Q: What sequence folds into this?
């Protein structure tokens, strides 16, 4: 519990539940997510065991605190399948067969496809409850794993009418033991939700970024923070993401059809020089941004941006934040926008609208170049 | 110069050029950009005068340090047209007629359309040189203006074969006086470049965000940082952006046609369950992200992300950055990802790959929950 208790910084809610009675738990797949689950369980005093198709990978994970890769002591009460998306169905089926009293869950990004595979096998699925932690990293493998990867993150628990309620409850306990926040959803809702809030944006970012490859001459020298934000996620592993998107092909495809119709509407409006129609499409986008839940799920806070010039060296941000803290202003979000031509940068601090003027004045009094 | 010299934090390069001999400069349009230009010029000791179709707006700008809204002392050497996109052509023509010895530039986001308007008038354009500072804000109007808005930002100087070289030189001096970095481009290259790095990403972000409006039920509860990044720019003023996009309709339209073809390819690949084709499209996106110039224009630094749990209160970021600074690690970029369910958050620090392990250990030793 050392790590969880430190991370909460005095906030007891953030600590993962201590759950020794939940185990033994077997984690199948010792990549980033699987190894992190085993480490989080170990942190919560749950006896955890880990396996991988590559025994050496499981051994590395185990040596980093991701449970034991030795023989399982007792019968697992829970099996967590954390394999690549393409293998989920087969591995879940195998776990149900190998451990006839265990609850089985998984951590896959897509739920319908493996479920269809399982249903086609005609087996009893009452002990299988889907799961999907909304956490990850651009790194992969057990060396990137961490016991606190899921702390405070959302973790979808995807149950069905044919799930044993006791099995659902055991998966909820797993999620809480890992420090995450449960969001319950149906299979169909989950896959449609992630298609909209994750897979479609990923595909769109990738296709937009793809337009940069052929950019002539020095056109990219005009790149700014907006372009970097829109395209950032497209740097994620294409090998993993193509499995995810392909496994959710129907939901993603339906949204891509919608998006193509919107692009057609934009093309038509631009060709017709129909500016009100262009504006209407852009207004819908602004409305969509404000539909994203506010921080902490509460009503969106009216924010203003304070821009500060900083030298690009260790300590500059520390001084800036120390000065912002002395002004007693909470920084809600921030962006760093480096100057491509020399070693200095701009930091944009998002603060409550009614605090921006005060913060700007306080920073200026402390010799920062700051403006709203 | 107080603001510029403070902002540079000892970096003399970042200071704007002192240019008293450049003036008098007349700025037409007292919105965010126009007022900021006049403030930056005043900072550089250039005599500046400001006008607006609404005299009260010009007066507000003037009262905030954006030059004088009174009678022009002497003959302007330079007129900066900073009106909304739709009025640029007419206002540039008027400035050329009203001030027959002045160089005229503008700050518009699109260059071809106003130029076509001017060329259709059959007037001598040797004194007109286009300009486009790559700076802005989600706020607008003279109250949002700042003398240092352009410090360290790129400012495209868009010259043509029929430009008087002395006129180009005067605009370059203007840019430097405002603290910005000159990038010279042709009219066509500029409009194609901004279509690709700014207008297309904006439209794509808006259309993707538009898909969120109709999201059923609690689907948006799975929203994460990726979605926020992809859609952030779509919150910008639709009224302004529709003028910008419409004024660059041909270049944006051509890229939207390309994007639609890519979306068709993605839809087809998903329907055919052709995973290698999906992967190839995603790989092109990853290549596009890495084509964006690295910070400081140098080769891209290999970065790793260190994730840290923080309480959401004043001072937490200050303590974090003080500790990072004590570890002597430079934070290249960062994101704050709040937990929607309670008042705590995660900060992702991007640092040089070979410093991430060290920083993680140092932060953990200082009782942060930190992991790579």
A:
């Amino acid at each position: 519990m050392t790590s969880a208790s430190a991370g909460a910084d005095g906030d007891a809610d953030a600590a993962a539940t201590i759950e020794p009675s939940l185990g033994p738990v077997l984690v199948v797949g010792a990549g980033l997510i699987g190894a992190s689950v085993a480490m989080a369980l170990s942190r919560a005093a749950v006896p955890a065991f880990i396996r991988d198709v590559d025994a050496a990978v499981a051994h590395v994970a185990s040596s980093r605190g991701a449970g034991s890769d030795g023989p399982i002591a007792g019968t697992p009460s829970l099996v967590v399948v954390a394999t690549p998306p393409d293998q989920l169905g087969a591995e879940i089926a195998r776990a149900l067969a190998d451990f006839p009293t265990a609850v089985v869950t998984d951590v896959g990004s897509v739920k319908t496809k493996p479920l269809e595979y399982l249903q086609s096998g005609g087996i009893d699925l009452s002990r299988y409850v889907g799961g999907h932690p909304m956490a990850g990293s651009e790194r992969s493998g057990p060396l990137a794993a961490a016991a606190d990867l899921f702390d405070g993150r959302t973790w979808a628990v995807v149950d069905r009418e044919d799930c044993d309620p006791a099995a659902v409850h055991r998966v909820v306990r797993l999620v809480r033991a890992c420090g995450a926040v449960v969001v319950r959803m149906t299979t169909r809702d989950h896959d449609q939700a992630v298609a909209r809030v994750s897979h479609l944006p990923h595909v769109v970012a990738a296709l937009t970024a793809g337009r940069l490859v052929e950019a002539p001459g020095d056109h990219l020298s005009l790149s700014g923070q907006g372009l970097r934000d829109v395209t950032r996620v497209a740097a994620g592993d294409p090998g993993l993401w193509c499995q995810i998107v392909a496994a959710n092909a129907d939901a993603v495809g339906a949204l891509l059809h919608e998006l193509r119709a919107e692009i057609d509407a934009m093309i038509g409006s631009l060709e017709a020089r129909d500016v009100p129609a262009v504006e209407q499409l852009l207004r819908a986008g602004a409305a969509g941004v404000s539909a994203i839940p506010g921080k902490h799920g509460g009503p969106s806070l009216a924010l203003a941006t304070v821009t500060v010039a900083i030298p690009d060296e260790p300590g500059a941000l520390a001084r800036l934040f120390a000065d912002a803290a002395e002004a007693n202003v909470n920084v809600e979000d921030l962006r760093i926008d480096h100057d491509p031509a020399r070693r200095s940068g701009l930091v944009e601090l998002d603060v409550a609208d009614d605090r921006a003027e005060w913060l700007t004045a306080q920073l200026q009094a402390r010799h920062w170049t700051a403006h709203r």
Observations:
- Residues 2-11+19-185 of chain B form a domain with the Rossmann fold fold (CATH 3.40.50.720).
- Chain B touches chain A through 155 residues (CB under 8 Å).
